[in-house]
Design goal:
This protein has 2 domains: 6-72, no CATH class; 94-144, no CATH class. 26% of the residues lie in helices and 21% in strands. The protein contains 3 helices and 6 strands, in the order E-E-H-H-H-E-E-E-E. The protein has helices at residues 20-26, 32-42, 52-72, and strands at residues 6-9, 15-18, 94-103, 113-119, 128-129, 140-144. Strands 3, 4, 5 and 6 form a 4-stranded antiparallel sheet that branches.
């Protein structure tokens, strides 16, 4: 009997002994990185010179390596679950809007100012962008197509 063997109790009262290698064989674990991680996780800090945290850190590194090894076996665009990788949602096209002003004719003191947002590519002829004349005020916005400020 080695020091890593554990006694297991079956429901019917029978007992048997097994170690981590028996468990790995029973579950048909063949990946060396997975085997290493499982051994570290079953008895962290109890197998000798290394402490619990070091064993857990090394298990994490082994799991990461197992994932890399599994990914290397996948066809291009595949996933570890076997499902095809979903196409990412396309980013919405951004449209630039500018704050514009229009002044109705009249004396400068009697003038009426109108302010509105217009797409940069569609500013009416009698409207003027206030972008060149302001700094602290937000005068330009980039929004997804179809969304208005």
């Amino acid at each position: 009997m080695n020091r890593y063997e554990k006694t297991f109790h079956l429901i019917g009262g029978q007992k048997f002994r097994a170690d981590v290698y028996d468990v790995l064989k029973a579950f048909e674990v063949v990946c060396p990185a997975r085997s290493h991680a499982i051994k570290k996780l079953l008895m962290p800090g109890q197998r000798g010179a290394k402490g619990e945290m070091q064993d857990l850190d090394e298990a994490l590194v082994s799991v990461s390596r197992a994932i890399d090894m599994a990914r290397a076996k996948l066809p291009e665009g595949g996933t570890l679950t076997g499902e095809p990788m979903a196409e990412p949602e396309p980013e919405p096209e951004l449209v630039t809007w500018q704050l514009c002003v229009r002044m109705e004719p009249g004396e400068i003191n009697d003038a009426v100012f109108h302010v509105a947002w217009y797409r940069s590519d569609n500013i009416p002829e009698d409207w003027y962008s206030v972008v060149p004349y302001t700094q602290p005020v937000e005068t330009v916005k980039k929004l997804p197509e179809g969304q208005k400020p």
